[in-house]
Structures are given as C-alpha cells and as structure tokens.
Amino acid sequence: MKKFFAKKQWMMVVLVAALGVAVYLNYYFTNEPMLSTGTDTSSSSSSDDGALGDAYFVNGVVSDVSKEDTSSDATQTEDYFDQARASRIAAREESLRLVQETLGRADASAEEKKQAQELASAVAQRVLQESNIENLILAKGFADSVVFIDGDVCSVVVQAEQLQQQESLQILEIVLKHGSIAADKVQITAKKA
C-alpha cells in the first residue's frame, strides 16, 4: 500500500507551514496595534492656527519637529514597506523553487505534479490578490500599503498615523471583495510615517 504522503510531500508541507509561521512572526514583531478604535482627530486638525502637516500632541500643542527628524522617520517607514515586500518576494521564490523541483523530477508521480501545479496556481492567485488589494488601498489615498495573504488569513499594513474607523472599513471592504477572505480573518495595522 502506498504511503499517504511521501517524504518530499511532507517536506513541502513543512516548508509551506514554516513560510506561514515566518510571515506571522514578521507581522507579530512589528509591534504595531491591530485595528484602531476610530477616535476622531479632526478637532486638532481643524484648528485655524496650525499649518497643514503640523504634529499635535494630546493637549493640542504644536510639536517642534525638525525636517531632518521627519525625513528619517519617512525613510524608516519606506524601508519597512520595502523590506516587507522583499521578504514576501523571497518567500514566494523559495516556494516556487520547490514547486519547480517537484515538476522537474523524473520520478515524480502524477499526483505530486498535480499538487505542485495547484500550489503554483495558488501562489500566483495570492500574488494577484495582494497586488490588486494594495493598488486599491493606494487609490483610497494612503501613501503606501503592503498585504500578506496566507491561506485564509490576510494582514494589511498601511502607512498612516492612525486609522479612522471609516478608513478601516474601506480597507476591510476591499479585502473582502478582492481577497475572498472572511472578515474575522483580516488584520489591519497602521504603520506611522
């Protein structure tokens, strides 16, 4: 009787699981809050005595932030999004390399080749979904975003000081429509600029 899973199939399952754990740990260690509570900050931004782009503290005092400080923060934020995309691409390339190895093996069974093709198709579908969601979020006016879809879980990180409830709902609507993900499996995080 044939084994349920051959060694290489188990290796592929373990590597896909490790990829999922790596994405989760990457997201977990960003130490960003999940969904904002939707507190309204329009009272501080509608003040007539401040200029557009001034930073306000809780007591409404304009902060004295130099342009050098804000540019280094912006660079760190851009680096975060670039690094997140680079790690996502590296994980995909490793997954596709394993698929290509399976497809290229002469001794691979038809079932193994079918599973490898299904995995490659799933990766391609995730790439398309993530790209579409990111582009639609950018169209809503956010400076940058990165989306991670891992199975039935979606993590969205947008560049924003704080997400209003309306903005979170807009992002959630985009993910639900274009990602085929359940609402309770979507995590939305704001990465401060």
Structural topology:
Elements (H helix, E strand, L loop, with lengths): L6 H22 L13 H4 L21 H38 L5 H30 L5 E6 L2 E7 L5 H15 L6 E6 L2
Parallel strand pairs: 2-3
Antiparallel strand pairs: 1-2
Write structural notes for this entry:
- The chain has helices at 7-28, 42-45, 67-104, 110-139, 165-179; strands at residues 145-150, 153-159, 186-191.
- Helix 1 runs antiparallel to helix 3 (67-104), helix 3 packs antiparallel against helix 4 and helix 4 (110-139) runs antiparallel to helix 5.
- Residues 32-48 and 52-71 have low confidence and may be disordered.
- The longest helix is centred in the middle third of the chain and has 38 residues, at 67-104.
- 56% of the residues lie in helices and 10% in strands.
- The chain is mainly alpha-helical and 193 residues long.
- A three-stranded mixed β-sheet has the order 1-2-3, with helices on both faces.
List keywords for this structure.
193 residues; 3-stranded mixed sheet; elongated
The ordered string of helix (H) and strand (E) elements is HHHHEEHE
- Characterize the overall form: elongated
Mean residue pLDDT: 74
* Poorly predicted runs: 32-48, 52-71
Gap from first CA to last CA? 59 Å
Q: How large is the share of residues in beta strands?
A: 5-15%
Question: In total, how many beta strands?
Answer: 3
Biggest beta sheet summary = 3 strands, mixed
**Radius of gyration over all CA atoms, rounded:** 21 Å
Oligomer: single chain
Number of helical regions: 5
Work out the helicity level: 55-70%
Strand order in the sheet with the most strands: 1-2-3
